[in-house]
Amino acid sequence: MKISLQTGFEVPRPDVLVNYLVAAAWSTETKEANSSIVVIVSGHPQISVLDALDAGEWTRKSGNPQRARQASVSADEVKDRFGDWPGEVPALPDGLIVGPTPEPTP
To answer: Residue 72 phi/psi, 5° resolution?
Structure first.
């Protein structure tokens, strides 16, 4: 699962975003993840997927602190959390990605 944030947008809770992305990937019926799910978040501001997975209490299967925008979790752990594939389509959490705030008009 890969998303790109545009400049000016913010992610108040990176752990909620990453959890949502993993759940969304697991609910996609096109191809079952049988090994792992890779999460990539790029753009500005840059968030650490590694830190977000840790905060969400995921066991990272892979991830490099030098490339903290990308990491993976095992399909087995995803199945333990969300049930058999394909999982239920997750509800979009409020305030997942916010901004940019428009400039006030005089």
So the answer is: -135, 155
The pLDDT tens digits of the residues spanning 44-77 come to: 878 899 999 999 999 988 777 777 889 999 999 9
Structure-block tokens of residue 104? 């006030």
How remote is the C-alpha of 16 from its chain's centroid? 7
Distance CA 19, CA 55 (A): 10
Decide the pairing of beta strands 70-74 and 2-5. unpaired
Q: Strand 36-43 vs strand 2-5: parallel, antiparallel, or unpaired?
A: parallel
Q: Report which secondary-structure segment, H or E, holds 49.
A: helix 49-55
The predicted-structure confidence for 6-47, as pLDDT tens digits, reads as follows 888 999 999 999 999 999 999 999 888 889 999 999 988 788
Residue 4, both tokens? 């790109």
32/60 Cα distance (integer angstroms): 19
